[in-house]
Amino acid sequence: MKDNKGIALLIVLWILTILSVIALSFVYMMRLEIKMAKYQRDKAQAFYLARAGLERAIVQLIIDKRSSRKIDALNESWSVNPDAYEDVNLPGGGYKVEVSDESGKININTASAGLLRNLPVIKDAENRAEICDSIIDWRDTNSNHELSGSEDNYYQALEEPYHCKNGHLDTVEELLLVKGVTGDLLYEEDADSNTSFLDGDRDGVSNIRLKDIITVYTDGKVNINTAGLEVLSSLIGGNTELARNIIKYRAGADGVDGTEDDSPFSSAGKATSIVGGSGHGQFAKLIKVNSNVFKIVSVGRVDNSRVTKKIEAVVDRSNSPLKIIYYREN
Ligand SMILES: [Ca+2]
Ligand SMILES: [Ca+2]
Ligand SMILES: [Ca+2]
Ligand SMILES: [Ca+2]
After folding, report:
1. Is a pLDDT exceeding 60 seen at residue 197?
2. Is the pTM value of this prediction over 0.85?
3. 63 Cβ partners below 8 Å, 6+ apart?
4. Cβ contact 135:113 at 8 Å
5. Residue 289: nearest ligand to its CA?
6. Max alpha carbon distance in the chain (Å)?
7. How close is the Cα of 104 to the center of ligand 3, in Å?
8. Nearest ligand for residue 167 CA
9. Burial level of 147, CB count in 10 A (0-12/13-18/19+)?
10. What SS3 class is residue 297?
């Protein structure tokens, strides 16, 4: 009798233990679900805040297009606009947005062999000829390879074969398919060889990479009011001195781009005269002073949360309505 009671007590205790474990795991799962629901809600909210930033930038680009000033420069309100772009607060969170001119970059689809050779990063690469000729073969419609280039016979012999494009690149990342082009040329120096090109190189300094200076979205002409030093110098056969003079001219007395005293070029003529005619005949044909294609990067953030959402878009405002020609969220 006594033994039976003891066994019954033991069984009851076991059942109680099991039940409390089940109850605890329910509580744990509920908490997890609440956390996940909050994450999803914050992510959705961050997305709409990032969208707000994107739309705001689009409005600025349209306003600028409608103004009577027919040039595009770094001190205009589509470019510098603290009230509309920098840490804007809305109910529940906010956004920050940056707009840059795609025409301040070199179009990799239209750049001549000479221009490709003078592009920073490519210029200093050991396999410069291979890279330039392979890009030309990737774009051109024929299957005869340039001296150091590569066509289908190379790509088809790879372990995982693919075809040579024989057409224009659709994205800048497509360059990674071209023989000789590596991730560290396009993104960051991959000094730690972990195949992540986004974490900077060992010396902690992020040097300029191809992604900063090339585009696939423009008509091929470069806006001398927005182009950086590296892009300008590659247009002048690698002459950094003359490129500096162009920036000096447009940046005004304070020497800084994007401020009130800027004096952007109103026509290509003045810049051409700064560069001078000798040996730089192509320069005048490759430049302009306005743009229609812009990159917008907008980041939405939610109050009291670490969740953010980033939207990257490239827009073309040449026609109305403005067209989004590239869009990516992460
Ligand atoms: Ca403008
Ligand atoms: Ca080809
Ligand atoms: Ca070819
Ligand atoms: Ca200035």
Report:
1. no
2. yes
3. 77, 78
4. no
5. 1
6. 114
7. 28
8. 2
9. exposed
10. strand
Type and span of the H or E element at 117: helix 113-118
Distance 224 CA to ligand 4 centre (A): 15
3-state secondary structure of 100: strand
Ligand found nearest the CA of 165: 2
All structural domains of the chain, each given as residue ranges with its CATH number in brackets, are: 2-104+292-329 (3.30.1300.30)
Handedness of CA 243, 245, 248, 250 (dihedral sign): negative
Looking at the DSSP assignment, which residues form a beta bridge with residue 101?
A: 294
Distance CA 240, CA 259 (A): 23
Going from the C-alpha of 131 to that of each of 122, 164, 277, the distances in angstroms are 7, 14, 29
Ligand 2 centroid–CA 295 distance in Å is 29
261-302 pLDDT, tens digit each: 999 999 998 888 888 866 567 898 999 999 999 999 999 999
User: Tokens 């247009």 identify what position?
Assistant: 235
pLDDT at 3: 75
Render pLDDT for 151-196 as a digit per residue (tens, 0 to 9): 999 999 999 999 999 999 999 999 999 999 998 899 865 444 444 4
Pairing between strand 287-288 and 222-223?
parallel
Residue 152 CA, ligand 1 centroid: distance in Å: 44
pLDDT digits (tens, 9 = 90+) for 57-113: 999 999 999 999 999 999 999 999 999 999 999 999 999 999 999 999 999 999 999
Centre of ligand 4 to C-alpha 77, Å, is: 14
